[in-house]
Design a protein that fits this description.
The chain is mostly helical and 344 residues long. The protein folds into two domains: 92 residues, Orthogonal Bundle (DNA polymerase, domain 1); 166 residues, Orthogonal Bundle (hpI Integrase, Chain A), CATH 1.10.443. Helices cover 44% and strands 10% of the residues.
């Protein structure tokens, strides 16, 4: 691999895989070369770490060499990007044994000038994961982040899609997105590679009309059975796809896909749905919110959606207002019009 610069100033990393040339561009701003060199150092580092006083980049190299083969390519790419573009330019060159809580306080202060606390929280979560992994591998004796109070997240509240918005987007969707949206909504699936996009027809129990979902590792049930809603035309899809049990339900040009982000954003734009942050994940919010508004008990909703009950209480307390009002209204009333004179 090598770091190169085009005539227009764009910095890129150039390398070959089995004789095929590849490039990754890093822009032409002031920090482009630093990001490119950090990326180059990480993905080309193969030498074992001998130093007893490692800097943070040494631990990043070891972590990625150990983890990159097991994690999805998109996840590895995401970590590389954050490390090269953001984290290492701030933490690189610091001996890990000299890091303390002040190091991370300064990191928060520097990043808070340009990004939200939620973004900083995610970045420091990656740093913490690498440090904890390094302790387990005995590369360092203890994590300098132990006991560090992470910055409070300032996540933007994502309102669920309305029924009308869902219908409008579906009407402007390609077939694979239409299927994805219906499955995500009627089954409460996480619309990513682990749950929604990995479903095969072999996971369907046709006699019970239910789908076995292998849950993403988010703290809820590892495996759950979700009944198939009568409006979900999954048998029609099965027949359209040739009735192959081992086939994926969601495909594009006959092949499984890894992401719906581009297709969803395009359909949303064509449907004229916008005005607020609406990721495809809001379909899952719509599913949970709709059930809670109908008075379905918390445990049942958690079991169907694969949520932890504590997480449900944290994120959907506002959606349980209807259920609470219904519960209160079921209390027997008293005749408060009858009054007796107090004895003197």
């Amino acid at each position: 691999m090598s770091v190169c610069t085009r005539k227009d100033g764009t910095v890129f990393v150039n390398w070959s895989v089995k004789g095929k040339k590849k490039r990754k561009y890093f822009g032409k701003d002031a920090g482009a070369e630093a990001r490119a060199r950090a990326y180059n150092d990480i993905v080309t580092s193969r030498a074992p770490m001998h130093s007893s006083r490692p800097i943070f980049k040494d631990l990043v190299n070891e972590y990625l060499k150990a983890k990159s083969s097991a994690m999805p390519a998109a996840s590895a790419e995401n970590i590389w990007y954050k490390m090269c573009g953001v984290i290492l330019p701030i933490l690189d060159g610091i001996e890990v044994m000299r890091m303390d809580h002040g190091t991370f306080d300064r990191y928060v202060t520097k990043r808070a000038a340009t990004v939200k606390m939620t973004t900083i929280h995610r970045e420091l979560s990656d740093v913490r994961a690498i440090l904890n992994w390094s302790v387990k591998r005995k590369l360092i004796s203890n994590s300098p982040m132990a006991g560090f109070e992470m910055p409070r997240r300032d996540d933007e509240t994502i309102l669920p899609l309305t029924h009308g918005e869902i219908e409008a987007i579906i009407a402007h969707s390609a077939d694979h997105l239409r299927r994805s949206m219906l499955l995500a909504y009627f089954c409460g699936l996480r619309p990513g590679a682990v749950e929604l996009l990995s479903i095969k027809y072999s996971q369907i129990n046709w006699s019970a009309m239910s789908i076995t979902i292998i849950s993403a590792k988010k703290g809820g049930l590892q495996r759950r059975e979700v009944p198939i809603h009568s409006s979900l035309p999954i048998r029609e899809w099965y027949e359209e796809d040739g009735s192959h049990d081992d086939g994926y339900v969601i495909t594009w040009k006959g092949k499984p896909i890894k992401s719906l982000k581009t297709a969803f954003n395009s359909a949303k734009r064509r449907a004229g749905v916008g005005g607020r942050k609406i990721p495809i994940y809001s379909l899952r919010h719509a599913f949970v919110t709709a059930l809670l508004h109908q008075g379905v008990d918390l445990r049942t909703v958690a079991d169907i959606s694969g949520h932890d009950v504590g997480t449900m209480l944290k994120h959907y307390a506002h959606s349980m207002d209807a259920g609470r009002k219904d519960a209160i209204n079921k209390l027997p009333s008293f005749d408060t019009t009858k009054r007796t004179k107090r004895s003197i």
